[in-house]
Amino acid sequence: MGSLYSFEIEKNYLVMTITGDYSYEDFIKYPKIIRNECLKEKKYKILVNVIDVVKTKIPLVELFFLGEHIANVLRGHIKLALVWDGETHNRFLDKVANNRRALIRTFLSEVNAKIWLKHDHEDEPFLEINS
Predict the structure, then answer these.
(1) If you average pLDDT over residues 117-123, what whole number do you get?
(2) How far apart are CA 68 and CA 105, in angstroms?
(3) Where are the domains of the chain?
(4) Alpha-carbon torsion, ordered 43, 4, 54, 51, to 10 deg
(5) What is the distance between the terminal CA atoms of the chain, rounded to a whole angstrom?
(6) Angle at 107 between CA 105 and CA 109, to 5 degrees
(7) What is the DSSP string of the chain?
(8) What's the CA gap between 28 and 62, in Å, rounded?
(9) Exposure of 26 by Cβ count < 10 A (0-12 exposed, 13-18 middle, 19+ buried)?
(10) pTM beyond cutoff 0.85
(11) Which CATH superfamily does the domain covering 3-118 fall into?
(12) Is the pLDDT assigned to residue 13 strictly greater than 60?
């Protein structure tokens, strides 16, 4: 089946919701789709919600390549908050992307993701709210 996505425009950021089945072939295309939508709407922060994506065991190598690709496409342009209740190594993707100077963080809740997107002092610590 693959995955489907939709965009919503909030005041200071975009929200992309992805549903369906996880597919590496789909997910590797999303960074360019995100960049193009952000540039079109002139909003440089985005919340990407993948909670409703049916996940299988995602190979670590796929997370590595997705993190690299996210960094290559979004680095220096877009702040991305990812809402994902995925695997035990769910922060591996952001570590790969952050090591390549992308601004991305994974959250378990949409509340914390929205707060982080609005937080513009990246050199200060960010404390998550337990929800």
Answers:
(1) 71
(2) 14
(3) 3-118
(4) 20
(5) 32
(6) 150
(7) --EEEEEEE-SSSEEEEEEEE--HHHHTTHHHHHHHHHHHHT--EEEEE-TTEEP----HHHHHHHHHHHHHHHTTT-EEEEE----TTTTHHHHHHHHTT-EEEEESSHHHHHHHHH---TTS--PPPP-
(8) 9
(9) middle
(10) yes
(11) STAS domain (3.30.750.24)
(12) yes
Place of tokens 């952050």: 98
Q: Is the CB of residue 43 less than 8 Å from the CB of residue 13?
A: yes
pLDDT at 50 over 70: yes
Tokens of 52: 């409703």
| CA dist., res. 82 & res. 50, Å (int) | 7
Amino acid occupying residue 68: E
Per-residue pLDDT, averaged over 39-59, amounts to 91
